Amino acid sequence: MAVAWRSVLPVILFFALLAFEDWISHPYCKTMPGRDPDDHVGPEQESEDDLKVMLVANLLLFGSEAGFVNLYFRDYYMSKFFKKSFHRVKPDLLLVLGDISAKGSQLTKTKWLSVFHQFHWMLGPFLGLPYHVVLGDRDFGECGELDAKFVNWITRKFPGLDSSGCGAFKISNVSFVSLNSVALLCGNNELRFSAEKAIESESLGLQMKANDASKTNEDSSKLRTKSHDFGWRENAISSGAGPVLLLHFPLHQTRKGSYGEGNAFNGALTPPHQSSRTQRMGFSDTSPYELSCTVPPNATEYIFQALRPRIIFSAHAYEFYDYVHFDGTREITVPAMTWKARDDPGFVVATFRRNRSVVSVSYCSLARESHVLLAYSTFLVILLMIPLLASTPKFRSLRW
Question: Which structural domains are found in the chain, ordered by start?
Answer without folding.
Answer: 49-219+236-366 (3.60.21.10)
